[in-house]
Specification:
The chain is mostly helical. The chain contains twelve helices and no strands.
């Protein structure tokens, strides 16, 4: 049943003009960033040729492109996720799902996986840009895989947070604004809170704040490093938000 719901949500996304607009804007922005970085890389060739071990095209082109994609997803995911639950509640179709012989866990996971599959497609399109250079330059495929994996985990965390906010309201626009505001607060306050706790000597608490700072968790992947702690923070944030969304829908079912 989870995959049935996921397939329905994925089809609904591809049938939505808004999703196509978001996908087009993502490709335009990341495509411009890719071409700009590639042009900079070509202009730096004389200086790079004089270096002993110069950085390659993966570090100088692919890394910044994935960083740009991460920043754009901060805006795009709340827009894509706003209709997942809020619109169903507004149209009174959520009552049918809640009355069906399926659990809230299946509903939440199905909706999450449908959105996650769409976002994975966006990540794949982003990865195709540096891969298009494979026949002309030497790519670091390990670093490229790390960048793609990190962006998938980041997109999943954004989707889980946005899905949770969508469960709290019946207005899709409010859900989008609320999810974006929540993610923005995480970006702005997560690192500041960690630095403040670290200055007081509370290193364990400072490390735990990274769970609520997904962009900071993505930073090691953007530098070509696989950080198991950063990956665990993104997975934990995703699981926590999904669990809270399930609990919220369970509470709504009981009240109904």
């Amino acid at each position: 049943m989870i995959f049935t719901i996921a397939g329905k949500e994925l089809k609904a996304l591809f049938a939505s003009p808004l999703a196509w607009v978001v996908l087009t804007m993502m490709q335009l922005i990341t495509g411009y960033a890719f071409l700009r970085r590639l042009d900079d890389f070509l202009q730096l060739q004389p200086q790079l040729a004089q270096m002993g071990s110069p950085p390659g095209v993966t570090e100088l082109v692919a890394g910044p492109v994935f960083g740009t994609a991460a920043a754009v997803l901060l805006f795009a995911v709340p827009v894509l996720a706003m209709r997942l639950v809020a619109e169903e509640r507004r149209n009174q179709t959520m009552v049918l799902l809640m009355s069906a012989p399926i659990s809230m866990t299946e509903i939440v996971l199905g909706k999450f996986l449908g959105l996650a599959a769409f976002l994975a497609g966006i990540v794949a399109l982003t990865a195709l840009m540096p891969l298009s250079l494979a026949g002309m330059v030497r790519l670091d495929y390990g670093m490229l895989a790390g960048l793609a994996g990190g962006l998938v985990l980041l997109a999943a965390a954004f989707a889980a947070v946005s899905l949770l906010v969508s469960c709290l309201t019946v207005h899709p626009v409010v859900a989008a604004i609320g999810a974006f505001a929540t993610l923005l607060v995480m970006v702005l306050s997560g690192e500041a809170a960690g630095d403040g706790l670290r200055a007081r000597g509370w290193t364990v608490a400072a490390s735990l704040t990274q769970v609520f700072s997904p962009i900071k968790s993505f930073e090691p992947f953007g530098r070509g490093l696989f950080d198991s702690y950063a990956a665990a923070c993104l997975v934990l944030l995703t699981a926590l938000c999904l669990a809270l969304a399930i609990r919220q829908l369970d509470a709504q079912r009981l009240r109904a």
